[in-house]
């Protein structure tokens, strides 16, 4: 009996989700001079066809970078008169404990 490898399958392999930033980073690696797409794809564990699909999406403008969140300046205004009293809001009506159902015939 020879020594071989035993592969244990524990479940279904899941589909990986690549972020836009990851896709753009992989595409940038492919654009370096002297680099083959097949090498980059193998290094990241994806098929070459997927890299070419991402390249086509980027060319068509469908693979835009995600917008980065930014802070917005806010200015807080101080009230002119502190002695002004607002009227009390009217209390909300209490919900009825009885449920009404209607059937249209």
UniProtKB/TrEMBL annotation:
It comes from the Bacteria. One of its GO terms (molecular function) is transposase activity. GO terms for biological process: DNA transposition. NCBIfam families: IS66_ISRel24_TnpA. Belongs to the transposase 8 family. This is IS66 family insertion sequence element accessory protein TnpB. It comes from Dankookia rubra.
